[in-house]
Amino acid sequence: MDHSALRELVEFITKAIVDDPGAVSVTLLDGEHGVVIEVRVAPDDVGKVIGRQGRIARAIRSVVKAAAIRAGTRAMVEIVQ
Question: Are strands 25-31 and 34-40 parallel, antiparallel or unpaired?
Answer without folding.
Answer: antiparallel
